[in-house]
Amino acid sequence: MTGAFAEAFQLLLSGDAALWDVIIRSLWVSTTATVLAMLAAIPLATLLSTIPFPGRWAINTVVSSFQAMPAVVVGLLVYLLLTRQGPLGDLRLLFTSWAILIAQFVLVLPMAIALVTGRLRDLWRRFGDLYRLDGASFRARMGALLVMAPGPIIVVGLTVFGRAISEVGAAIIVGGNLEYATRVLTTAIKLEVEQGKLAEALAFGMVLLLLALVVNLSARLVTAVLPEQDLERK
User: Fold this and answer.
1) CA–CA dist 143, 58 (Å, integer)
2) Are 113 and 42 in contact, with CB atoms under 8 Å apart?
3) Domain range holding 185?
């Protein structure tokens, strides 16, 4: 076991092409999926947190429930969309990095919406009356909420990124785990373990643990630099 750890460190320091191809692809796919999910979630969360309409409670309940949707189910649904017989089959995205990106986007979008809605709802309860009296437009409401709570929104983005980069089921189903094409950190670990290559699996696992540490430290730093209670005084 000690030898496997030592070999894993050597792989990380050696600049192994296959290893870094997986790392770079994982970062690109998960970061892009996270950014797109946040861009979609912020206006939707503003709508769900600031504008009352019939059925809003039901929509919030459904969105919150979808946070627990298994990754393999998301992978299956995206697979059905992208397969040759599916509605998006002509795009030929199945078993490409774009398919994994789409699956991760679908997987983390409910989480992004629910978490951002929770943050914005609390702020709207405190300050919403001021904007209602001014007759603020939807865009003005969204802008004001983002100005008041940039820290919590960034923390949500980091949380969503952590969920995206750690999923495995959807990536295998829609990506196929193809070397130098669709292999990401989680699917690489699964493959290396199945093949008995513990050093390679440990190397990929160390990268995931390092990313988890960076995400957690970044969230704590953002919370310290942009504490919500200080924003409330502005």
Assistant:
1) 26
2) no
3) 2-231
What is the average pLDDT across 206-233? Answer: 82
Which amino acid, one-letter code, is at 106?
V
pLDDT number for residue 231: 40
Closest to 100 measured CA to CA, from 5, 29, 204: 29
Q: Give the residue among 180, 124, 116 at the shortest CA–CA distance from 150.
A: 116
Looking at the structure of the chain, the number of domains it has is 1
CATH assignment at residue 200: 1.10.3720.10
Q: Higher confidence at residue 44 or residue 5?
A: 44
Identify the pLDDT of residue 127.
75
